[in-house]
Amino acid sequence: MNYSVKKWPFESDIPGGSFQRFLAYGFENSVCGIIFEGGEALSGVPLGGLGTGYIELLSDGTLGRCSIFNDICPPRELKLPFLGLTVDKEVYLLTNKPSGRIKGVKGIRYFGHFPIVDMQFDLECPVQVALRAFTPFILGDSKTSNTPLVLFSIRLTNVSNKRVKGKFAFSFPGPKEGEPFKHSVFSERNISGISVTQRRGAGYTLGVLGKEKTHWGAMLGSRKNPWENLLKEEIALPDESEAGTTLIVDYILNCGQVKEIHFLLGWFYPYFKDSGGEPHTHHYFRQFRNSEKVVKFGAQYFNELSKRVLTWQKVIYDSDEPDWLKDALINCLYSLAKNTLWVVNNRPDNWYPPVGFFTHSESFTGCPITETMVCRIHGHFPTLFFFPELEYSTLYAFKHFQISDGEIPFCFGRPTSLRDPRYHCQHPLNSGQYAQMIYRYFKRTKDKEFLSQFYSSAKKAINYQKSLDYDNDGLVNEHSHAEPGEYWPANQFYDIWPWFGTSAYVAGTWLGTLTSGIALAEAVGDKKSSLQWKEWLRRGKNSYEKKLWNGSYFRLYNDSENHRIRETSLANQLMGVWCAKILGLESPLSEEKVKKALSSIKRLNFKATRYGLVNGVHPNGSKDFTREEENDHGKQIFVGESLCAAMTFMYYGEVEVGMEIARRLYEVMAILYRSPWNQYCLISSEDGHPVWGEDYYSNMVFWALPMARKGEDIASFVSEKGLVGKILKAGE
């Protein structure tokens, strides 16, 4: 590890506001990222794992959103400082938003690299403070990543020429529930702490490592027990009205001395009911039976867990990807902490596979729908690459909810329901995209037993999709559900932008499905389906080019029956091509026409904005919009869709163009709007500001970019020589 860092945990003289390279503790080589000043970032790193819930640590030193108490949707807003200390009979809160007479910090520097937060606090006193907080989220290890735990390393440095003593406090609130609870103190071996226990063993534990002299008391910051009480020899003990609590460590520092304090916060709220009323048990119940055991696990493996997190990040930081993409790959994973549920059920009527049931919401904070198919087609890559057993559980659920005609549901329910599947919503896409994911999983795992188990389901889904070809031209038709004169539901991914007849996006995605289906059929030896689907593909390709090709690109749609044609250039009109290329398959469209279409997209959609690709642009270069309201999909930018288009450029040799599109998109979120841990789905093509969709699932498609940049497919990307393979190898 690199112990030459000038100021722990990262170099302090790094300018903020842009991507920089610098030294950070635990890394042999330099890392990269953005240093935010206190309060500058509009979001914070969510400290949590796979389906555990999370606590957001904001750049102003306060706790933000929190879902560990099963406040899943929407998450609870804490808005509380949680760290403080006394120095020379003065109390300091480690935030630049102190309250009352309490002093805050002069400055904060914040470096977030999920699941780690590094912070430096500048205080006007003899003691300087720095923090590294992390959760044991480890790529390739779903079990450890399912630990409901945050670990905190605090470093105190006496910068004066005299001895200093005081107290350091960690204060945390309790759940809002009005149910009974009790406090209990424990101390054994190398850890001590306090637990708050509620009904059925639920609760949380604050612990501290080492033989520290510790005290505990009521939560600080409330009216009854403010932070001023930290100066007292004994602070008030918790009573029946306050489940929150505080853990206090005494310290003494000689001139120039450094002291480290290690706190742990573990929680255990395993039982909850989803919005459909169904009771569930979080998967972490299989590993732990109370929060004290969670904290003791963290204490036993504190250093090892830290090292394992740093190890997988090191592979990314040491790769040849550009700095902005390294930061994007690491930080887009935050969605797995904010938006996932992983449940188990031991009832005899349970249908889950042994691993349980893992789901990723479209966004618990923006658009809470459980596993929206049209979002997971972009965003499921990290789960597919690093946690294939969890990807399997989700695919298994879609198969379970498939109905007799072969249709795959749009989702499993909303806002948090896991058993209320919705059908005939964006159905021109869902079933075919499910079939593509079956082949993606096979390419990732090479698991022939999986293929034999799922092939029949994928086949039914493909044949159902074909039933939506009403004019028998080999292409799936548009099925807008919007009433005349209205825009929603348009019934495809761009769901307030109705299209008609045959569209480039829906029909093109269908051709990508057929391409995948043929590969699936050949893998299992189903010659009959392979021949049938090849004929559908041949006929569909001819119809697609005949109806949509305008000589320069594939027009948005052609409704010949009703004499409606829209010549708009859709930024991601080649979605079906991208779907094939990431699987190592041939393009379902003419290579010559694909190249011409890319040239037109560059001339029209790329030129029309500084922030990525405008979704829709007319042949004259003006943006396509159907109304004046801001939330108009035609004139704005879908981040996930633009990233797919960027990758298509890369697969056709225009790597610089594709990378420039992707770089602009990420810099809008990370630099311009300072929100790398709350990425929006839709942004403005005018100034890049967020338009709609907080914390979006789709944006994890960043994880397919390095693959496209090098012209790889899923199989090569996860091999030992690919980036995913290297990360998994390091994690072993």
- Largest sheet report: 9 strands, antiparallel
- CATH fold name of the largest domain: Glycosyltransferase
> What CATH architecture of the largest domain would you give?
Alpha/alpha barrel
Uncertain residue segments: none
Oligomer: single chain
Number of domains: 2
Radius of gyration: 27 Å
- Record field, number of beta strands: 31
Which CATH class of the largest domain?
Mainly Alpha
Return the average pLDDT rounded to an integer. Answer: 94
Beta-strand portion reads 15-25%
Termini distance? 18 Å
Count of helical stretches: 18
How would you describe the shape? Answer: globular
Strand order of the largest sheet: 3-10-11-12-13-20-17-16-15
Judged by helices, strands and strand pairing, the structural class is alpha+beta
Helix content: 25-40%
Structural account:
A hairpin with a 4-residue loop joins strand 26 and strand 27 (564-570). The protein folds into 2 domains: 39-294, Glycoside hydrolase, family 65, N-terminal domain (Beta-galactosidase, Chain A, domain 5, Distorted Sandwich); 351-731, Glycosyltransferase (Alpha/alpha barrel), CATH 1.50.10.10. The mean pLDDT is 94. The longest helix is centred in the last third of the chain and has 22 residues, at 527-548. The chain has 18 helices and 31 strands. The chain starts with 19 loop residues before the first strand and ends with a helix. The protein is α+β, with helices and mostly antiparallel strands and 732 residues long. Helix content is 30%, strand content 22%. It has a 9-stranded antiparallel β-sheet. Strands 9-8-14-19-18 form a 5-stranded antiparallel β-sheet, with no helix packed on it.
